[in-house]
Amino acid sequence: MKSLSLVRSVFLYGATLLVTLLVLLPVVFAVFTSFKPNPEIFIYPPTFLPNKWTAEPYILVLSQKRYLRYFLNGYIISISSTLLCLIVGALAGYGFSRYRLPAKRTLMLGILALQMLPGAVLMVPYFNMAKALGLYDTYLALILVDTIFPLSLVIWLLKSYFDSIPFSLEEAAMLDGCSRTRTLITIVVPLARAGFIGTGVFAFIRAWNEFMFALILTRGPNIAPVTVGLAELFGQYTINWNGVMALTIVATLPLTIGFILVQRYIIAGITSGAVK
Q1: Cis omega (within 30 of 0) on the bond before 26?
Q2: What residue spans define the domains of the chain?
Q3: CATH number, domain 65-274
Q4: Among residues 1, 41, 228, 239, which is most buried (max CB within 10 A)?
Q5: What would the pLDDT profile of 131-143 be if each residue is shown by its tens digit?
Q6: How far is Cα 159 from Cα 168, in angstroms, rounded to an integer?
Q7: What are the φ/ψ torsions at residue 138 (nearest 5 degrees)?
Q8: What kind and span of H or E run contains 124?
Q9: Could you count the other beta carbons within 10 Å of the beta carbon of residue 120?
Q10: What are the pLDDT digits (tens) for 199-257?
């Protein structure tokens, strides 16, 4: 029995290690490529480690105000849309969880169906609306777009998480004189902290990676996020590959560190709401 358990453990750890290596290999290769001179990237056979190390791509990215502006715009848009998404999603999810609404199931299915709508279908309507409302090339246009698309899934996740919180805790607080709003803020929200962090990370990553609407609703680095700046490195005839890799690494490094710090909350936020 012990030998069978040992074999099973070795198999599981070996399979996990293999999958991890397969996932991390392209990332590690991208990191080393960012330190290669551009001509060395195209040599055959390709080399894993650079023959000549250079930090020029990182100096180019971090020294130009244009790219720093792209990063600033990306954080402003992503953080703002995440906060707005959590506020609206929490209110909607709490309402669906605690109140008896007419046709609630139909409304929930309708909200989820919005997640299936391709974003490309809405490019022209959003562009025309932004022009008509004077929101073209503004932060507000991108914040609203980046809030709308993940909102339906955020509502579903937070609604499921609120369902897992006993209503008796809110009843006890209201018997002590708390209003419904104060109960939501002081009782429910702290208990749902893991759910908020998990869905917030999802909304932030969705906004940070958004490119299509960021491209058509802005006209330059004053408002556009880092995804648009990354696209500038792809020329008509040449591609600055080491610059692409360097900008990608710089853009993803803060997100990776943040994900590592809050990963336990992310897992708890996504899984706990699924269990009643």
Answers
A1: no
A2: 65-274
A3: 1.10.3720.10
A4: 228
A5: 999 889 899 999 9
A6: 17
A7: -130, 155
A8: helix 123-133
A9: 9
A10: 888 889 889 988 889 989 988 788 889 888 888 877 767 777 888 888 888 888 877 88
